[in-house]
């Protein structure tokens, strides 16, 4: 559904050229749900804008839904649905009208567009708001309207750029319910960007991690987490001095990796944390370390990113 | 702080190619020149159809609240007509004898300038929100996205001008009917040019404060040097010369001649040529940049 080869994009700025995307190779098959994950400024949106014909590549090539983004942009546009980061509906436009106009832009007749709009409004639970101007919808409703506009022509491939940013947890869950149902019913390929790690983790079957304009990891969330050696085990202690003593006691222990004292916490990476925990507790007890709390945490996608780049995904978050 | 263990992974590890993936179509790599739109696109049926859809979309909020949009933007010329026009009766010569006959066509031109030059303000929020981007991602004619907006603004302008003309007629300022119709057409052509330039400027400047600043700098001289308030003949030579460079002043002269029924006047030809030239130039620039902005 999506094939890119050595796709790059440069931007000219005051000081020179900035390479936002540096040689991207991505292949997405029909029916996949792929999450594009990376910190702000990693090149996610630039890449998405190239794939959706909003931006010309500087070099390289991309075929989307079988059409070249440079040679046949209208072909790409007709085949894909695009839900951008911002709101796609005009604030003073009536929900029903805006949706029907979108349908007509995609080649539906007036009657078809009206029928399809009504269908989507019902499916996305917007029918009660259908005759209101878009500006008077709630954040969640307005985002669902964006999704409806992206789906008006039943695209085989849907691009979602940060679909749930700015929504409260309830609206997020609701939005996802709709997206996943749509996929189950129609087999739509979904390619989305997100900086919500938990979202990428829970929803996407495949996560493509991008950093500094390049793909640095690609696989299922579990595959990616396999790159991180072991679970995080953290022990809370009374004071930093105690943490240092505890670290000294823990370092020689078999299976404990990356032992580190951080404030009043002692951290390490251990394969199968729950199984190792009793032994660790006994060893620390023997060393006379006074523990206040214990925590075992499976690797997250943030740990994956940290392992690959030495930086946390959360650092750049605004 | 990051943990020491997490630093062990080599940065920039690329994934091994997955043999299960469907092979990508062989695509030649390397830089390609930006797409040149095929010329016929501008004249195709699709452009007309898409322009119609865009026009309808733009028109819908206006039609739901017509009075607001009619009155909105009309206040300035109407206030000038009521509170400034009567002052002209003190002018010497034929102007003082029948000032409104001279003043009304100028106010219509002012309406056209203010009504369309600020059109870009309607696009700015849609660019900031993502509406414009959503439309660009659709298989819509780029030309239609621009033209549909411009035509809605011109439609509103014509409706406003009709109200002004009807109001003036009620107070005894009766223009020649064919002349007034031709005058409306002239306003529409001027409106297409100025409206297109306004959208173009909004797309280039993007930030509202820059856009309003740039508009102020352009619109005020255009109006002051157009002779809508007082005859430019009264001006010192250098100011008169400046007013002749101002395209709007020629349109104003033509509008006045037309309202008097003087189709044959030299001003009409010049004014029409200036308005049409502005419109053609603006559309050519606008269509070009719509194609360049997207991809």
Structure description:
The complex is a heterodimer of chains A (318) and B (295). Chain A is an alpha/beta fold. Chain A has 2 domains: 2-225, P-loop containing nucleotide triphosphate hydrolases (Rossmann fold); 231-298, Alpha-Beta Plaits (2-Layer Sandwich). Chain A has 11 helices and 14 strands. In chain A, β12 and β13 (265-270) form a beta hairpin. Chain A is elongated. The model of chain A has no long low-confidence stretch (mean pLDDT 86). Chain B is mainly α and 295 residues long. Chain B has one domain (42-82, 97-294). Chain B is 68% helix and 0% strand. Chain B has 13 helices and no strands. Chain B has helices at residues 45-64, 66-71, 75-83, 93-97, 99-117, 120-129, 131-136, 142-170, 177-205, 208-224, 237-245, 247-259, 266-294. In chain B, α5 runs antiparallel to α8, α5 packs across α12 (247-259) and α8 packs across α9. At the A-B interface, β1, β4, α2, α3 and β10 of A face α1, α6 and α7 of B.
Query: What is the distance, rounded to the nearest whole angstrom, between the alpha carbons of the first and last residues of chain B?
Result: 41 Å
Query: What is the structural class of chain B?
Result: mainly alpha
CATH architecture of the largest domain in chain A: 3-Layer(aba) Sandwich
- Main interface by residue count: A-B, 76 and 50 residues
Largest sheet of chain A: 6 strands, mixed
| E-strand count of chain B | 0
How would you spell out the order of helices and strands of chain A? EEEHEEHEHHHEHEHEEHEHEEHEH
| CATH class label of the largest domain in chain A | Alpha Beta
How many domains would you count in the coordinates of chain B? 1
Whole-number mean pLDDT of chain A:
86
Examine the coordinates and then state which fold CATH places here, giving the name of the CATH topology of the largest domain in chain A: Rossmann fold
């Amino acid at each position: 559904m999506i094939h890119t080869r050595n796709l790059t994009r440069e931007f000219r700025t005051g000081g020179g050229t900035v390479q936002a995307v540096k040689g991207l190779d991505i292949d997405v098959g029909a029916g996949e749900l792929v999450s594009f994950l990376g910190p702000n400024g990693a090149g996610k949106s630039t890449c998405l804008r190239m794939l959706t014909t909003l931006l010309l590549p500087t070099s390289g090539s991309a075929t989307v839904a079988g059409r070249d983004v440079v040679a046949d942009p209208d072909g790409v546009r007709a085949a894909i649905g695009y839900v951008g980061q911002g709101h796609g509906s005009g604030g003073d436009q009536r929900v029903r009208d805006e949706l029907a106009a979108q349908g007509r832009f995609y080649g539906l007749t007036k009657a078809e567009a009206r029928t399809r709009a009504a269908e989507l409004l019902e499916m996305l639970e917007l029918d009660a708001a259908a005759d209101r101007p878009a500006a008077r919808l709630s954040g969640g409703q307005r985002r669902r309207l964006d999704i409806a506009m992206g789906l008006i022509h039943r695209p085989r491939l849907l691009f979602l750029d940060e679909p749930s940013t700015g929504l409260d947890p309830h609206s997020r869950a609701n939005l996802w319910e709709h997206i996943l149902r749509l996929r189950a019913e129609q087999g739509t390929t979904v390619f989305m960007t997100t900086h919500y790690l938990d979202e990428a983790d829970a929803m996407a079957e495949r996560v493509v991690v991008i950093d500094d304009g390049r793909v640095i990891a690609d696989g299922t969330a579990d595959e990616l987490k396999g790159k991180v050696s072991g679970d995080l085990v953290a022990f809370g202690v009374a004071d930093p001095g105690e943490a240092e003593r505890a670290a000294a006691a823990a370092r020689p222990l078999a299976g404990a990796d990356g032992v580190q004292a951080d404030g009043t916490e002692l951290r390490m990476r251990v394969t199968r944390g729950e199984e190792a925990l009793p032994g660790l507790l006994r060893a620390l007890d023997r060393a006379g370390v006074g523990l206040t709390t214990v925590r075992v945490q499976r690797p997250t996608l943030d740990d994956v990113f940290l392992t690959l780049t030495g930086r946390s995904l959360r650092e750049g978050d605004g | 702080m990051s943990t020491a263990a997490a630093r062990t992974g080599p940065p920039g590890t690329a994934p091994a190619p997955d043999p299960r993936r469907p092979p990508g179509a062989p695509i030649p790599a390397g830089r390609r020149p930006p797409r040149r739109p095929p010329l016929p696109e501008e004249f195709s049926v699709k452009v007309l159809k898409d322009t119609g859809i865009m026009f309808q979309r733009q028109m819908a909020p206006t039609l739901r609240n017509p009075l607001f949009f009619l009155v909105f933007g009309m206040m300035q010329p109407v206030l000038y007509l009521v509170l400034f026009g009567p002052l002209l009766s003190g002018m010497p010569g034929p102007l003082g004898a029948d000032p409104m006959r001279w003043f009304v066509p100028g106010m219509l031109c002012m309406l056209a300038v203010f009504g369309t030059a600020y059109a870009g303000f309607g696009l700015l929020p849609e660019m900031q929100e993502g509406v414009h981007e959503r439309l660009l991602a659709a298989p819509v004619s780029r030309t239609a996205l621009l033209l549909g907006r411009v035509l809605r603004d011109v439609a509103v302008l014509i409706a406003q001008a009709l109200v002004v003309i009807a109001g003036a007629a009620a107070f005894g300022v009766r223009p020649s009917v064919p002349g007034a119709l031709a005058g409306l057409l002239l306003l529409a052509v001027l409106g297409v040019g100025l409206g297109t330039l306004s959208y173009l400027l909004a797309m280039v400047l993007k930030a509202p404060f820059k856009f309003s600043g740039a508009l102020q700098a352009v619109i005020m001289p255009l109006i002051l040097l157009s002779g809508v308030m007082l005859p430019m003949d009264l001006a010192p030579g250098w100011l008169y010369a400046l007013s002749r460079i101002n395209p709007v002043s020629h349109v104003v002269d033509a509008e006045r001649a037309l309202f008097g029924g003087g189709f044959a006047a030299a001003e009409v030809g010049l004014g029409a040529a200036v308005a049409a030239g502005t419109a053609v130039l603006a559309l050519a620039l606008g269509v070009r940049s719509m194609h360049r902005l997207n991809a």
